[in-house]
Amino acid sequence: QYVDAIHSSSENLLWIVNDILDQAKIESGKYTISRKPFEPAMVIRQLKTLFDFKAKEKHLEFTIIEEGHIPKQLLGDQVRLFQILTNLISNAIKFTNEGKVTLTTSGSPMQEGTTRLDFRIEDSGIGIPSDKIASIFESFIQISEHETSGNQGTGLGLSIVKSLIQQLGGSISVSSVHGKGSIFEFSLTFEEASTLDPAIEDKVTSLPEGLCVLLVEDAPLNQLVAVELLKKYIKNGTTELAENGSVAVEKIQSKNFDLILMDVKMPVMNGLEPTVRIRSMEDIYYRNIPIIGLTANAIPQQISECLAAGMNECITKPINADELALKISKYFTHD
């Protein structure tokens, strides 16, 4: 339970650090929304784990209510949905000194295999003054300092929330009584993942045995994490390490690998140059070997450079285990 809490808190810290970057991307039009299968129940569990501790620290009651029909899997941007809910719940707890915070999620089947999820975040906090409600979603807008002493942030949270919800095709509303609490409500429509390949879960958990992977990564901690993730999904597999692109080129000239995981930013030689060299080799095997890029800088320009160099695709750090396994599975035939 403590490990789960640490993991969730670390992810939450990452969102806070990314607030300024997100705002810049939104304003420049470089913000992208993904469509991937995700489990709503997992999102709710993560929120429960994360905010139970935060609420208990302030002696608040944090409750999650699920209503209606919520499918096991939906198709959409799980990361952005989690970011939206994290921001709204975090605000509710931050500005509530006694009482409770409640998240209510309601699912309603729609036409043509879609589901609408309605979210309601209600708190018994300080509320929003009537003269602030109209501007609460603007960038850098905060409630008056004397009411929020010790709770100052970037003032970007609600602005980002509104922009994300709009990009996901929804809208958000707020009602509040100053001194008594606030209610934020928004709705999003998702395609049900049952319309996808029914074998998608098997692809995540049934990678071929004995794969030989070359991991090109300079950071020891990242090496450790990636190696352990590969052990989880590949039985009887082997993983060799190369601390930079130059070493990677040397290794593939003396041994055949089934897959290359290539970090993009490394000393001596970054991930782009060895990828170009591999794709230009005479051996057709290496001209076609799967190369999956690993990058912490997942902006469109970076991804385009990786693909242009010859990588098949990229994974954003920190690496998600299921996403890594799913991407690897695309390049191997299962018996």
Q: What keywords describe this structure?
A:
335 residues; 23% strand; alpha/beta; five-stranded parallel sheet
* Integer average pLDDT: 83
Q: How do the helices and strands follow one another from N- to C-terminus?
A: HEHEEHEEHHEEHEHEHEHHEHEH
Percent in strands = 15-25%
Give the uncertain stretches in residue-range form.
144-155, 195-203
**Class by SSE composition:** alpha/beta
Taking all Cα atoms into account, the compactness measure Rg is 23 Å
* DSSP helical segment count: 12
- The share of residues in helices is 40-55%
N- to C-terminal separation? 38 Å
The profile of the biggest β sheet is: 7 strands, mixed
Shape, principal axes of CA atoms = elongated
General description of the model:
It is a single chain. Helix 1 packs across helix 2. The protein is built from 12 helices and 12 strands. Strands 1, 2, 3, 4, 5, 6 and 7 form a 7-stranded mixed β-sheet that branches. Strands 9-8-10-11-12 form a 5-stranded parallel β-sheet, sandwiched between helices. The protein is of the alpha/beta class.
